[in-house]
Amino acid sequence: MVTKLELLPAVDVRDGQAVRLVHGESGTETSYGSPLEAALAWQRAGAEWLHLVDLDAAFGTGDNRALIAEVTGAMDIKVELSGGIRDDDTLAAALATGCTRVNLGTAALETPEWVAQVIARHGDQIAVGLDVRGTTLRGRGWTRDGGDLYETLKRLDSEGCARYVVTDIAKDGTLQGPNLELLRNVCAATDRPVVASGGVSSLDDLRAIAELVPLGVEGSIVGKALYAKAFTLEEALEAVSS
Ligand SMILES: O=C(O)c1ccccc1N[C@@H]1O[C@H](COP(=O)(O)O)[C@@H](O)[C@H]1O
């Protein structure tokens, strides 16, 4: 149980570049250069976590596996890895990078038996990404519906899932503020820690998410706001430090 909100600066990789998308839609990329440089910059700024995403693997347009392994290997901080981790081979490759945990999206919707097995086998190293539009989960690069958020949450809870990364797709990459109501509702539906994702635009947004720590929000992913220089990571860490 954390008392202070953890921040996870994001590095999303597409075609070898660090990018940000709007609503997670392919084709909306803004490029921010080298993923390794971005990750090292967040580490130098004091991050304790990195949220590293292979977008090509998530979209099914190839993968950046070697680069993701290079970036993870270069980090002294904890790494949460996601995108395209859907079977034994991709999970083994992800865990072999030395990452702290992986975040499963599509697999939790399409191959629930496999996900139950890997939760049982790997425990805290497995998080599930609940990527939602309204209360409908989306998989395969957020292009396909994958069932009801709360039914899936109930199933995953019963299987022992350690934590959830909750993304409001409508907010992601928009700088429109987080969906606090969604976070409150998910926290009310599970006793597992929740990592918030999508929409952070200001230090006040982070303070508002930090107020949900007593409800079960453990961390927040921060992406576009950092790349757009709405604030620095140092300022963000300071804002949630008490
Ligand atoms: O992070 C994004 O912007 C994003 C956009 C579109 C698809 C996925 C995205 N991110 C991460 O990918 C995993 C899902 O990958 P998969 O379904 O397991 O292959 C998701 O949890 C997000 O962390």
TrEMBL record:
EC top class named in words: isomerase
Keyword list, A-Z: Amino-acid biosynthesis, Aromatic amino acid biosynthesis, Cytoplasm, Histidine biosynthesis, Isomerase, Tryptophan biosynthesis
Protein's cellular compartments: Cytoplasm
Catalytic reaction annotation: N-(5-phospho-beta-D-ribosyl)anthranilate = 1-(2-carboxyphenylamino)-1-deoxy-D-ribulose 5-phosphate; 1-(5-phospho-beta-D-ribosyl)-5-[(5-phospho-beta-D-ribosylamino)methylideneamino]imidazole-4-carboxamide = 5-[(5-phospho-1-deoxy-D-ribulos-1-ylimino)methylamino]-1-(5-phospho-beta-D-ribosyl)imidazole-4-carboxamide
GO annotation (BP), single: L-tryptophan biosynthetic process
Record GO terms (molecular function): 1-(5-phosphoribosyl)-5-[(5-phosphoribosylamino)methylideneamino]imidazole-4-carboxamide isomerase activity; phosphoribosylanthranilate isomerase activity
Pathway(s) per entry: Amino-acid biosynthesis; L-histidine biosynthesis; L-histidine from 5-phospho-alpha-D-ribose 1-diphosphate: step 4/9; Amino-acid biosynthesis; L-tryptophan biosynthesis; L-tryptophan from chorismate: step 3/5
UniProt similarity note: Belongs to the HisA/HisF family.
Function: Involved in both the histidine and tryptophan biosynthetic pathways.
Listed name of the protein: Phosphoribosyl isomerase A
Gene name for this UniProt entry: priA
